[in-house]
Amino acid sequence: MLGVLRSSVSGFSTSYLDGGNIRSSASSIPIREKGYGEEAVYYGITLEGQRHGIGKLIWQNGDSYYGVFCNDKKEGFGFMAWVNGDSYQGYWKQDMRHGSAKHQYANGACFEGTYLHDKRQGPGTLTWPNGDKFYGTWKDNGRVGEGKLILSDGTHVQQEWAEVSPNYSISTPERSPPTSSLKPISEELLIDLNFDGSS
């Protein structure tokens, strides 16, 4: 739940966002959102023609953002909802997800952790709809290094990851590293179990 956000811009009327309803004396401004290439409408506070303070941005396709803007960019705490069913509640910096967050995916998976420059980065938890949880570290969006998978039945599994740019919105995250990351055993290392010592 986003809760209540309050504007701290001096000289402007205070606006707040409560349950998805923005209250402000500002009028709507049609804009073309940078990076999205799609028309959007902004409702909220502006400063010298830029979004600045609490606002609500709604794209033509139905995606929406409610939260704080600074110098025309998403900055600070905010909530983003995509029409595919994904949602993000957390911090933004220069229009990028940046800081502590909770990202709920339409497929039921949920990531709670840290984003850095719009990518999952650092410690985090990944939860599946059945209650299985993975605790570990992310780098450039993917799980890396050691982690622990705790299954809903209480079983603990230590894992080693080297995940490369997964898209959790498109497919449900895997519960174990791909087998392709395992090194095959060469035939020279195989032991003949029938060897009796005679040659």
Task: Write the CATH fold name of the largest domain.
Answer: Histone H3 K4-specific methyltransferase SET7/9 N-terminal domain
What would you call the shape?
elongated
The side-by-side strand order for the widest beta sheet comes to 4-5-6-7-8-9-10-11-12-13-14-15
As a whole number of angstroms, the C-alpha radius of gyration is 23 Å
Count all strands and give the number. 15
Number of domains: 2
Unreliable stretches covering 5 or more consecutive residues: 1-26, 180-197
Q: How large a portion of the residues is in β-strands, by DSSP E?
A: over 45%
Q: Would you give an account of this structure?
A:
There is one protein chain. With 199 residues, this protein is mainly β. The protein folds into two domains: 1-83, no CATH class; 94-182, Single Sheet (Histone H3 K4-specific methyltransferase SET7/9 N-terminal domain), CATH 2.20.110. It is built from no helices and 15 strands. Strands 4-5-6-7-8-9-10-11-12-13-14-15 form a twelve-stranded antiparallel sheet, with no helix packed on it. A three-stranded antiparallel sheet has the order 1-2-3, with no helix packed on it. A hairpin with a 2-residue loop joins strand 2 (16-18) and strand 3. It is elongated and about 55 Å long. It starts with a strand and ends in a 37-residue tail after the last strand. Residues 1-26 and 180-197 have low confidence and may be disordered.
